[in-house]
Design goal:
Elements lengths: L1 H16 L3 E11 L4 E5 L7 E10 L4 E5 L2 E3 L7 E3 L5 E5 L5 E10 L1
Antiparallel strand pairs: 1-8, 2-7, 3-6, 3-8, 4-5, 4-7
């Protein structure tokens, strides 16, 4: 089952890179072509550590803008994303952007 495979992958990543932490949530996030999520901050509970993005499908015109500037997340890498700082997401391409998202919390 794909959901179980994603959960197993998430637990391995969190165990290796965030000792003592747990996978609180996991899901797929799609940003359709032409969509802009303007700058915002996502409030998080005190036990929250990070959101991990793993690009599964993207294009050169998908950009995450953080406090330190624009970033293009590429397939084959995982990214620690701090949603407690202002960020924006845009997809100026013709293909959807799909990321596996993992919410990491203190155990």
């Amino acid at each position: 089952d794909d959901a179980e495979n994603f959960r197993s992958l998430a637990e391995i990543l969190v165990h290796r890179h965030f000792p003592g932490c747990i996978v609180k949530g996991i899901g797929l996030w799609k940003v359709s072509p032409g969509v802009l999520h303007p700058g915002h901050i996502d409030p998080q509970p005190p036990e929250w550590i990070a959101r991990i993005h793993i690009p599964l499908r993207t294009n050169p015109h998908c950009v995450a803008t953080m406090s330190d500037g624009p970033h293009q997340m590429v397939i084959g890498k995982a990214y620690k994303f701090n949603t407690e700082t202002e960020h924006a997401i845009s997809n100026g391409g013709n293909e959807p952007r799909i990321h596996l998202i993992i919410e990491v919390h203190r155990g």
